[in-house]
Write a sequence for this structure.
């Protein structure tokens, strides 16, 4: 069995164990591995435009706000924007700051017919450290995965 098959099997097992309403849950490293190895895999960064600009975003991510800053109001056009930027048969990996918004986005996408939806656990910045700051404990950035700012 290939590494990619193992990753997808583990992600699906996590979904089953936690009764998730989408295909599976991936660690940032697993998500990055799939992005580089499988065709039709898209990373969908659902954080706010302010986060993309001031904190950064994974290289090559499709950017669609789940909620907008300020006020964190829901994006009423999320599904329409998603349909215009990805194919419903793509393997979609949803990412936010820590995994909460991306969980909601993956659930909505799966509910609306997107075939393969995965949440990226830990998110881009991950959990807070002992000083209450993000970015060093876990998450995309802490794992040293490719990203850029701006």
């Amino acid at each position: 069995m290939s590494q990619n098959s193992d990753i997808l099997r583990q992600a699906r097992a996590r979904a089953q164990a936690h009764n998730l309403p989408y295909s599976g849950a991936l660690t940032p490293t697993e998500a990055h591995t799939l992005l580089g190895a499988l065709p039709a895999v898209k990373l969908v960064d659902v954080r706010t435009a302010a986060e993309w600009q001031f904190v950064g975003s994974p290289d090559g991510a499709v950017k669609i706000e789940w909620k907008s800053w300020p006020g964190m109001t829901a994006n009423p056009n999320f599904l329409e924007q998603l349909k215009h930027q990805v194919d419903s048969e793509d393997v979609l990996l949803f990412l936010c700051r820590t995994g909460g918004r991306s969980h909601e986005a993956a659930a909505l996408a799966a509910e609306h017919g997107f075939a393969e939806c995965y949440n990226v656990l830990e998110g881009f910045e991950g959990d807070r450290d002992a000083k209450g700051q993000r970015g060093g404990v876990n998450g995309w950035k802490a794992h040293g995965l490719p990203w850029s700012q701006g």
